[in-house]
Every structure is written in structure tokens, then in C-alpha cells.
Amino acid sequence: MERRTQMALLHRLFELIDSGGTQLNDACWQQSTEAYISAARLAWEREYLFSRYPLLVTHGSHVAAPGDYVTDDLGFVPLLLTRDGEGRLHAFANLCRHRGARLASGCGRDARAFVCPFHGWCYDLGGHLRNLVPRDGFAGLHRYGYGLVRLPVVERHGLVWVLPKAGAHIDETRLFADLDAELAAYGFSGFSHFETKVLHARTNWKLVIDGFLESWHFNVLHRQSIAPIFLSGVGLADRFGPHVRVVYPRRSVLQLRAQPESEWDLLKHSVVLYVLFPNTLVNWQGDHLEIWRVFPNKNGAPGECVAEASLYTPEPARTDSAREHWRRNMELLIRTVVEEDLAVAEDMQRGYEARVQTTMTFGRHEPALAFYHAQLGDESFTQKAESDRVDWSGRMRTPTS
After folding, report:
1. Distance between first and last Cα of the chain
2. What is the total count of domains within the chain?
3. What is the CATH classification number for the domain harbouring 344?
4. Is the link from the previous residue into 78 a cis peptide, with omega within 30 of 0?
5. Looking at residue 232, what is its pLDDT?
6. What confidence score (pLDDT) does residue 143 get?
7. pLDDT tens-digit profile of 347-356?
8. pLDDT score, position 385
9. Domain-terminating residue out of 149, 169, 189
10. Which domain holds residue 127?
11. How far apart are CA 57 and CA 81, in angstroms?
12. Is residue 382 located within the same domain as residue 314?
């Protein structure tokens, strides 16, 4: 984040702290619980959000050198990312063109080719078919027309996005909206991977993201874990195209008042959270980076999801003390989310599925939730929802006193 942005945000935060308030939306937001329990809604999300939007797949350090490759199965299209001998990054559907068998698994380095485990068809790092087996069994089939299905891929700011739709194009200007320079300033491309955890939860995928979008619950739900670290209820939310940025100040931010402004540093005294639409959280945690990717469960149940949490550090953890430090950070993160946030979210999901309460309310003091769900209520789905007499996107309602 550039310094001028940090200073502007700090001044806004201190104005809120001095007034004893927080950022307020114009009105409350009434959210339909059907958005979390409807199979029709989930089918639309799969078709629209998870097929037509670029999705963040990984940090660039996992495919940094020629011969590196990464597979990903959290989304609805199995992915294979490769770095060829010229350093070019490629994304493919992880399917052999012969019979559709899975071509590669996990991740690795120094790969030169991928051989299908079913019949032995062989592909190079650029996705070109190099060997047909048996050769005389495919008379008239030219291998140059049978490369892997190529998908659009963009690598920027140390992060890799893939659009899981063959023949499509990623509009980078639209992808980053006005966040391009801000994300570049962090220098995430030089960060190192420490650990990744995959969590399965019996809740809709959007409820996982919702849990990050307000801090008023810190002093209640997290009073024994992270509440002592943060100024509960104080936060800033801003929209950047489809994306949302949220800033939660740590209590230590108050120390800046005793320092000249030239020494102010927002990043040391806050969590800066980016919701990169539709399903990714990129969280700056004061001295390290966390990336959350959240997907619906592929079995089609609206009340199940999978979340991947990854921790990246500015420098590799080369010593025992460094590894122990980051291990504790990861442990606190996972324990807080699993034992506190997800436990409540699963209870909420069961309540929605009972269908005794058809709406819930995001208060004026929870603007990031309204920003995010307004974007989820895309016009194409809203029109379909209206034709089905269901309001998926939520509606603004003037708050009552």
C-alpha cells in the first residue's frame, strides 16, 4: 500500500476513534437467507461466479522457475499450472485429451513433461501433445491439434489468476479495478510460503467470507483470542470495482498519536483485508500475508464448503525460532476461525435451513457486508430471481429507530 493511501486511511481512522463511532452505511441491508440455502442459487453461482470470473489460484512462488507446476482442485474445473523452459506461465484443464484422465497431481519442480497415467499420452510444459500411444491407433489425428485445453491466466503482484473458461480473455484493467498500484506496493512477489491448511465446513461458502467483513463480533465471539489485539467495532470499508478493502486497526495504532506523522505506519498497526471478488481474501496481518480461497463443495450441497488458508512471510523461515513464530501465528489463525467463526457459521446455516427466518440484517455499521453482497447480486441473477419471485441480492431498507 502506498504511503499516501496509508496516511489518508489513518486520518479517517483517528476521526472515527475521536468521535467514538465507526463508518456507517446509508441504510441497513436486508439479506435473504435463501442466498445461503438455495440449490438454484448455488447452481447460478457455479455457472456465473465460478466460471466467468478470474479466480485467484496460487502465489507465484509455487510456479516460479522453469519446470515448476501446480495442480488445483478446489474449483469446478481441475487446473494445471506450469512454467515452461522460457519462463512463460500456462494454465490448462488438468485432463488428458484422449479420455479425460487426470494428468498430474499435487505440485512439483523440474518437470519436463506430463505422461497420462491411463494410456501414456505425453504433453510438454506448454501443453503440446508430444506422444500418441499407440501411434497407429489414431490414424488421421494430428497431435498438434490435441494439446491440453488452455485457460486464460494472469500473473501479477506475486499472485496468479485463472479464468476457468476456455477461449475467454482476462481483462486486467477490470480485474484489478483501482487496486493495481496499491497491491503492487506490498511486494508480495518476494514473499515465501510457510504453510497451507484446507478446512471443510458445513456452511455456505459466503458465510465464511462474511465472518471477515465486520469486527463488531470481536469482543463477544473472540474475547479470549484476538479481541485484546484490536479496537473492536472500528473499521473502514471501501469499494474498488467488484472488490472491497477493509481496515481493522490494532490497539497499538493509538501509539502513533505520540509520533510525528512522518513516522506513521498503518501496515504495522492494522489488518488490511481485500475481498478479491468473488471468493478470495488477501489479508495483510501487520507483518505477513494470509490468503483465503473459499469454494462451494462440489457435491452441490449449498450448506457445505471448503476453505484454503495459506500463510506467506516476507523472508523464508530458516531458523527454529522463525518457524516457531510463524507456526504460532498459523495456529492462532486456524484455531480462531475453526473453533469460533466456523462453529457459529455452522449454527447459522442450520438456522437458515430451518426456513423459519427468511431474512437477516446487516446494520449500517457493517458496510463491507452490504458492499460485498450488493456485488454478489449481479443483474443477470437478480433478473432471474425476480422471475422466480425470489430476491437473492438483498434490498436496502431505511433503519428504524
Report:
1. 38
2. 2
3. 3.90.380.10
4. no
5. 81
6. 77
7. 999 999 999 9
8. 43
9. 169
10. 55-169
11. 9
12. yes
Residue 81's alpha-carbon distances to 159, 182, 256, 397, 399, in angstroms, are 13, 26, 44, 45, 48
Are residues 228 and 371 part of one domain? Answer: yes
pLDDT of the residue at 399: 38
Residue 388 is predicted with a pLDDT of 42
Whether 129 and 146 have beta carbons less than 8 Å apart is answered as yes
Q: Report which of 115, 116, 146 is spatially closest to residue 128, judged by C-alpha positions.
A: 146
195 shares its domain with 296: yes
The rounded distance, in Å, linking the Cα atoms of 312 and 308 is: 13
Could you tell me which residues come within 8 angstroms of residue 385 by beta carbon, excluding any fewer than 6 positions away?
391, 392, 393
Which of 115, 147, 169 is the last residue before a domain boundary?
169
Nine-digit cell string for 326: 510463524
The answer on 136 and 224 residing in a single domain is no
Asked whether residue 84 falls in the same domain as residue 187, the answer is no
pLDDT of 383 reads 46
At 19-63, the pLDDT tens digits run 888 888 899 999 999 999 999 999 999 988 999 999 999 999 999
Residues of the chain with pLDDT under 50: 378-401
Shared domain check, 316 and 247: yes
Which candidate, 333, 58, 329, places its Cα nearest to that of 188?
Answer: 58
Q: Label residues 292-320 b or e (16+ Cβ within 10 Å = b).
A: bbbbbbeeeebbbbbbbbbbbbeeebeee
Q: Give me the pLDDT at residue 379, please.
A: 41
> Domain check: are 36 and 108 in the same one?
no
Tens of pLDDT along 277-332? Answer: 999 999 999 899 999 999 999 888 999 999 999 999 999 999 999 999 999 999 98
Predicted pLDDT of residue 141: 78
pLDDT for res 381? 44
Q: And the C-alpha cell for 125? A: 510444459
Any residues with CB less than 8 A from the CB of 186 and at least 6 apart, and which? 1, 157, 284, 289
Same domain, 251 and 382: yes
